[in-house]
Give the backbone structure.
Amino acid sequence: MLDDVKRVLATLLILVGGLGLINHAQAYDLGCREQLRQGQAPRLNSVLGSNSILQLCKTGFVLGYDALNRRPVWSAEFLDADRIDAASKLERKDYFHSEEQLDPVVRRDLRDFMGDGLDRGHLAPSADMPNAQSQYESFSLSNIVHQNPQHNRGIWREVEQLARWQAQVLGGSHVVTGAIYGSHLGVEPPPLSKGLSAPSFLYKAIYFTELNLAGVYLSPNDESSRVLVVSLDQLEELFGVQPYPSIDASVKSTAYPLIYPEQQEWERYRFDDLDNTVPFRLSLEILFGWVLALITWATSWVKLLSVGFIA
């Protein structure tokens, strides 16, 4: 009953512009704009409830929070060698807490994460945070999803590490991490009590600024340890999410070959629905784009080899 009341109140506040949902947050400041590629937030289609997404400016990252359903949908951050080096020297201090920037009607508290057997999983990882303030803010429950324990502590932890390593070596990257709710591609989300929801998939989209290339890690929120690397176009086709709305079409259509976690032993898992793609016609423009991508890809791997990242 209480959850229904909260949803009604949240809906009314959203309809009048959402002004009462954020207590003392500015949607953007200069620091937050730098975390987003060209200052643009990820684009979600209307089915995903884009009208109820609040953008929360944090120290070192930005959050997209679904006020109507009381859950995070994406985080955005910029990673480079300096930030990652600073983060590696910071001692982790867990301090999960309710989101101070949100009205109590739409925020979650620790009771929402008790007794379900699931982990409190970060969207923007605490290990990405370069100082104590940003690390503290990363433990806000507006940045936390209900995550399968094996997934959180296993394959997804490797994905987060690989995202940092590749950003460090390849000149920096914009990273958007997101949660996909509902049943998709034969994957059911972990069950929760009424009024709460866990994602069926997590994704981590990475745009390498110096290479002008992008790829997406996609992984179901279960114990299967499956990870698939897809393009931005494929992510949008599957789930209606575009992490970088104004990026070049050639970058969206080609998935940069991100390094796979060791747990997969370099196997390329596929989901059935991805095999049912519509054939396309090869053109000189597409062929030229592939050649440029291949040259850039080869250059990036030479960099990885030169620093001993790949044996």
The chain has a mean pLDDT of 82.
